[in-house]
Amino acid sequence: MGRRRVEVREGRPSNKVLALAGVGAVLSGVVVALVVGYLIGHETGPTKTTTETVAARAAAPGGETVGDITEAPAFSAEELAADPRENWLTNGGSLSNARYSPLDEIDNDNVEDLKGVWMTHLNGSGEATKYSGESTPIVYRGVMYVPTGADDVFAVDVETGKKLWVYEAHLPQQIDTICCGWTNRGVALGEGMVFLGQLDGTLVALDQKTGEVKWKATIGKWQNGETVTSAPLYYNGRVYSGVSGGEFGIRGRLTALDAKTGKVDWKFWTIPGPGEEGHETWEGGGDAWKHGGAPIWNTPAVDPELNMLYFSTGNASPDLNGSGRPGENLFTASIVAIDATTGKYKWHFQEVHHDIWDYDAPSPVVLWNAKIDGEEVKGLSEPGKTGWLYMLDRETGKPVHQIVEKKVPQNKEQQATWDTQPYPLTDSFVPQDVGEGQYAEIRKLAQSTLESAGLKNVEITNGGIFDPFAHDMKVLAPGPTGGNNWPPSSYNRNTEDVYICGISGYAGYLTKGLEKADLGKTYLSSVLTLTGFGTYNGTLTAQNVNTGEIDWQREFEGESCYGGTTTTAGNLVFVGHSSGELSAYDASSGDEVWSFQTGAGANTTPAIFEWEGKEYVAFYAGGNSLAASAHGDNLWLFGLEGEMEEVKAGGPAEAGQHAGEEAPQTEVEESEGKPAEAAGGGTGGKKNVEQESAGGNAMAGKNVFAENCSVCHGASGHGGNGGPDLTTQPKAKTLNGAVEQVTEGGGGMPAFAELLSTKEIEDVAAYVVETINVK
C-alpha cells in the first residue's frame, strides 16, 4: 500500500486541475486522425477457430480430480437479477450491472490478509502491444470463463486454476478497423453455451463443456468498421450485443439473437431511420443518418419487472465535425431504454446534443433503487466522458437530480452547433477547466506538429466545456478520454454510492473540412492533440445517488484510473491500476486498505463469488494498449487463505516472457498453491543506438509495426491514439534516428529495448524510414 501519491478529498472535489506529473510509458503527441488501433497486421493463418481440451478430468497437483463442468440452464430472470453469491453470472454480476457482491467475509478489517490462492497463465494470449486485457470473468459452479484481447476464451477450474479447455479465435490479422486496441470485455453464459463477441463482427456460441463452436452469427462487418468489443448479455432465451465503430462512420445498433440458433430476432438502430422515433434530428443532413455512429461499447442492463433493457451509446460521426449533420443527432451520446422482448423504443436521455467533442457514453448503465426526497425511486446512472454522473428514473428517463438545458457558445456556420446542452447541477467527478500547465503542454505539442503538417497561422486558445472549435484550436477539459471512459462503475446499496474510475483528461480540438464517408475508412474530419491515456491524473469517486453529492474522492497523480470498480457488502471497493496493483478501498471513507501487485497492467474489473463457503476475488491482469501498461496473461484468484505473495511489477519483457516473471516459460505445472516468485522483466537492453544500423528488412518491420506501434501511431503511421504522425518526426526519417527512438524511447514514448530484439528494432526502423516516410 501507499505506492501511489494520492489525496483523499471528502465532499466536493477541487475544481483546480493538478499539474501533469510523471508522464508514463505512453506515446504522446498529435492525433492527426484518431485512428485508434488501426492495424495493418499480417496474416497468420486462415480465418478459423480451434478448441483444445487442456485438463478436463485431469489430476490436479495435489492428486484430486478436476470436476466436471456443470451445464448452465436457461437462467430465469429471477436468477439473473439476484445478487451474485456462489456465481458471477453476467458481466456486471447481475442484470442490474451494479457489480455489487453481498458477500462480507472479506471486509475492510481483514482484507489486508488477502493473498493469491493461485495464478494461471493464459497461454500468452493477447500479450502483444496491440492487445488490451479488459474482461471480467464469468463464474458458474466452480468454473471461470474469461476471454483475452485476442478473443481467445479459457475455461478454468476454480479449485485448482487448471485450464479445462481453450478456444482460439484465430482472428484475421488484417482487420484494420479497430478502435482503441484489440480487446474483449467478457462473455455471457446460458443454455449450456458461452457466448462471445469477436472483433471480426461475429457472435459465437461455444459449447460450455468443450469449447467447441455451436453456432456463429455475423452481426457486423469489420470491413465496414463494425467490430464487437463488449460482453454480450444472455437474457430470456436471447443474446444481446452491440457493435463498435463510431470512428468509422457506422450506423449503430443493438442486435437480439435466439440463444439456441443464433438467428437474429430483431435489431434496434441507434441512429433511427425514416419514420422512426428520433429520425427528425437528422433530417437536415440528408443521408448523414446512414453513417451517423452511435456504437454500443457496453453490456446492457435489464429490469425484469419493467421488462426494459437499458444501454448507453457512443459518439456521432464524424466525431469532431458536425457541419454535415445539423440537429441533435439522436440517439448518439445517449441512454436508451427499449422493450426487452420486442426491441421497441421506450425512452431516451441524451447526455450531449450534437456531440462534436467525443463526449459520448461508453460505460455501462447501472440500475439501483433508492429513496430520494422521501420517495422510492427506481433509478439508473451512467458516468459520461463529460465528467458528470447522469442519474435518471429508469421508468421514465427523467432526471432524479436536476439537469438543466443551458445555452452554450455557438458556431453554426462551421459546426452546426446545438443551442443548449444538458447541465447536471450535481458536481462533476473530474475537472472541467484546463490548467495553465496543461494548456501550455497542449500548445507546445500542437504547434510543432501543425507546422510540420503544413497547417499555418492556427490560433490556439483555452476554452471551457462545450465551447465550439473549427479551423483554430480550442483546448478543453475533459478531453475525448473522459471523464469516465469504458471502465464500469459499481453501486453499493449500503453506502448508496456509485464508484467511478475517472480520467482528468484535456485536449486540443481542431476540425478540418468535412470528409466524405467511406465504408471501412476513418471518419473524423479533425485534428486532435492530446497526451496518452495513461498520463492524465486519475480519480476514484464515490457519488451518492440519494443526495447527488460526492462523498469522497481519491486523486492519483500522474496515473489515470483505467479499470472498472466492484463493491461489496464487506464495505470494500476494488479497482485495478495501470501500475499492476489491484487495490481495495474502504467504501465509506476512500481509505486504501489493501493493494497487491499482479505483475501486469490491472485494467480489468474483478468478479467476486463464493466457493465452498469461502469468498474469492477473480481478476485478470493483461495490460492495456491505450494505457501503455505492462502486458501479461495473469489470471488470479484471491482469498483469505491464499499463500501467494505479490510479484514484481511488470515491465517491458523479453520476447516470449510473461510480465512479472524472471525467465521464459515452457510447459509448466501451474497453480500449485505455492508462493509466487518475485520477478521482473528482462534486463539486457540493445545498446546499439550510436552505431550505424546494419539495415533492417522493411517487409518484416511491417509486422513488428502492426503488433507494437500501430495502436498509437495508426495503421499508416500518420497518427493514432496519442502517437504523432511519423512523417512529421525528424528521428523517423533516418535509420539511426528511428533505431534510437525505438530502443530508448523518450518524449512520452516507452523504450522497446527489452521488448524487441535488435533485429526487430532494425526491421521496424527500416519500415518507418523506407515505407512510412517514403516520398
**Rg calculated over all Cα atoms:** 24 Å
Portion of residues within helices: under 10%
Could you tell me how far the N terminus lies from the C terminus, measured between alpha carbons in angstroms? 52 Å
The secondary structure category is mainly beta
Globally, the shape reads: globular
Mean pLDDT: 85
Q: What order do the strands of the largest sheet run in, or round the barrel if closed?
A: 1-36-35-32-31
- Estimate the strand proportion: 25-35%
The description of the largest β-sheet is: 5 strands, antiparallel
Number of strands: 43
Number of helices: 7
Poorly predicted runs: 1-7, 9-47, 55-66, 652-693
Describe what you observe in this structure.
With 775 residues, the protein is mainly beta. Helices cover 9% and strands 28% of the residues. The protein contains seven helices and 43 strands. The strands form eleven sheets. Strands 1-36-35-32-31 form a five-stranded antiparallel sheet, with no helix packed on it. It has a five-stranded mixed sheet with strand order 2-34-33-30-29, covered by helices on one side. Strands 3-10-9-8-7 form a five-stranded antiparallel sheet, with no helix packed on it. Helix 4 crosses helix 7 (758-772) and helix 6 (735-744) packs across helix 7 (758-772). The protein is globular.
